[in-house]
Amino acid sequence: MKKFFKSLMLISVCLGLSATVNAKTFRYATTGDILGLDPHANNEGPTNTMKGNIYGRMLHRKADLSLEPDLATKWEKLDANTWRFSLRRGVKFHNGNDFNADDVLFSYKRQTQEASDMSFALATIKQINKVDDYTVDLITKGPDPILLLNMPMFYIVDKEWIEANNAFEVVRASGSTNFANVNTNGTGPFKVVEWIQDTRIVLEPFEGYWGKNQIQHNLTKAVFTPISNDATRVAALLSGEIDLMYPVPLQDVKRLNNDPNTEALEGPELRTIFLGYDQWRNESLDMPGSGKNPFKDKRVRQAFHHAININAIKRVVMRNAATPTGLMIAPGINGFQKDMNNRVSYDPDAAKKLLADAGYPNGFPVTFDCPNDRYVNDEEICTAVIPMLERVGIKVTPNFQTKSKHFNKIGKAQSNNTSFFMLGWTPGSYDALNPLMQLMTTGKPGHGDWNCGQFNHPRVAELTEMIKTEMDDQKRNSMIREAFKIHQDEFGHIPLHQQALAWGIRTKTVKSVIQRPFNDVDLRYVVMK
What we know:
Layout: H1 2-18, E1 25-30, H2 45-54, E2 59-61, E3 67-69, E4 72-79, E5 82-87, H3 101-111, E6 125-132, E7 135-140, H4 147-150, H5 159-164, H6 179-182, E8 190-196, E9 200-205, E10 221-226, H7 230-239, E11 244-245, H8 253-258, E12 262-277, H9 298-307, H10 310-317, E13 322-324, H11 348-357, E14 365-371, H12 378-391, E15 395-401, H13 403-410, E16 420-425, H14 433-439, H15 458-469, H16 473-489, E17 494-506, E18 510-512, E19 527-528
Parallel strand pairs: 1-10, 1-11, 14-15, 14-16
Antiparallel strand pairs: 2-3, 4-5, 5-7, 6-7, 8-9, 9-10, 11-17, 12-16, 12-17, 13-17, 18-19
Helix pairs in contact: 1-7, 9-11, 15-16
């Protein structure tokens, strides 16, 4: 019976794709659908990747992580707090409207509203002033050492189009709908011609794209299909129904490399997978009527660290395709402290003693919120963690869900409705300030959007504000180091590992594709045979 349903699923996928195939059609798949099309709504990897194919930004991040002009052609620093950007002339939105400075000012106002999940990228900007139709001044709240690094996350929308469709207000939760979440009008190289939620997104090149002579792709169409089942995704690649898929289940890497028509591309990723816990409620969601929240006690948080055997997860679950970590950022992120990248020992006896000392000699119940279609082997990792915690007395109830439901539950959409959860994070700016703002502080605009357990330490908050404006690299790194040390000492989260990238491509149809370390498919780099 299971085999029948798997076959039926594969047939459906094939039928859904076959109608759109032509010589230069690129068909690709990952585990789940995007969370929406509004560029200012959801800060999530595959969703941001799709935005980047459709919407222009002030700057674009190339495959080698360097920055290049996009809607801004040049920029200069006028004084400590003022940057002047010259805007590209002759740019059209997909509907034919002209791009100018008014769209930049409007996009700033829209992206910095409280409901925007992308407001963090502009949190250090005080205001944007229009100099003329193609020149703007960005005024920061203080010296900003990483302003340019955040510009690839400043998405520009068409003021006239948004206002005409009454879509200024950002609706944040995945599954929620406003006009901008189901319709698009960008200046990017591709435009959306169809989105059937959880089924497919069809894109075509934008003929009026300003940079069409500078991009590498030769596509006439791109079809993105979410395929949650690993076996179905691999089968679709092997049968030729799709040209690229990610992630490749680790057990199938060798199989794809041995097939004459496919290949597995592997490389490092800058995403850190971690666990977190509710540190703010006075009473745990899983212990109603008790008046207790165990995770407010540092000893309990430390016990969870000691209980997890990360080397077993690396060896058995990840098949050695992961790098265990003791920090919330990966090597390659600005501010990474190599000598601090150590974990506490795996020691179940120490965990039991800490729990007993904290007043929980028999453990306590906890619901474990985990996605089952977002990260490499996410459900399998959580499944492995459960008996490790149960060994030290924790009574775990797993709650595995598709990523949209998972993010809604643990995030602001449902007021961080979680006691214990998994999350993964790649800093969009490739700088340590990003996770400090997003994961380790709270209470200010642009802070704590994914600080789901609401870790809160006054010195970390103070240091984060200082890091925002410190221009001296040595002083700044010293502040980052102090903030990370406090977070480690407080066991603010449980860093697990950086997962390895594994993509599968169909070598018979794909001539070249660039695998970037942030695990996305930038369509401008895809060339078909």
